[in-house]
Amino acid sequence: MTKILITCAITGSIHTPSMSPYLPITPDEITEHALGAAEAGAAILHLHARNPKTGQPSALKEDFMAFLPRIKQASDAVLNISTGGSALMTLDDRLAAPKLAEPEMCSLNMGSLNFALYPAVQKVSEWKFDWEKPFLENSDDLVFKNTPRDMARILTEMGVDRGARFEFECYDIGHLYMLKHFVDRGLVQKPLFIQFVFGVLGGMGADPENLMHMKVIADKLFGDDYMFSVLAAGRHQMPFITMAAAMGGHVRVGLEDSLMISRGTLAKTNAEQVVKIRRIVEDLGREVATPTEARAMLGLKG
Ligand code: KMH
Ligand code: ZN
């Protein structure tokens, strides 16, 4: 069976420092967590930046550049910079750092959607926010905007102009058809690396039937020209990605997607989640791909 790609999403833009003291915020913490995850077996590191003082998601180039060169220098892992940023950022903001850093990979969210994470936490009432209060309050009226024009712009500016390949984030079945549209327009290079995203309120729920159906439709639309990976928010993370691994897919872990290592226990590092899924996938008989193997599998510029 194909070797398995482990992506680790180090910090994201959703969880907050008040939810876990272990969420990496500063450049030192992001670097340390990223290198630990790579060492544990993550071939791909999915990266966002934070304001080191407040912990808020940051689109500032300086905040990205405070850790990207350090990770690159100390590790061979594939760097994948988010172009999703946060749902509260403009597309210009979201693209600033990726355009400067010219990573081998970046994320591309395949549609606009309502974006709330209530199902990802055990009890909504336990959400304690400081600066993120406006986010929660606005969450009931928040659209994560990714119009066809936005997507075409990211594909052009990052893919065509800078040679990046994409982690196509698909939160719903319609996003697969949108991806097919861009393939047909000639804006997308193969092979495709599609991230099926479960558990964001506004996208697919974490039901196994949805995973099956996503694979059936992706097989139909893309045949042998794609690989799928799975991420699932909160408590669904490990069960869902285990299912993906058993189905021949790839997996994403990381504190962006879940703060826990097991029910009721916070993960202290991103590496812990990588170690856990690595053990599971190796027990399932899958071999973990190295960064060099990942580059060959994904056709990266290197
Ligand atoms: N936060 C995840 C649900 C992005 O960075 O482009 C999806 C994500 C989006 O990783
Ligand atoms: Zn992300």
TrEMBL record:
Keywords: Metal-binding, Transferase, Zinc. InterPro entries: Aldolase_TIM, BKACE. Its cofactor is Zn(2+). The keyword Metal-binding applies. One of its GO terms (molecular function) is metal ion binding. Transmembrane segments: none annotated. This is 3-keto-5-aminohexanoate cleavage protein. It comes from Parasedimentitalea psychrophila.
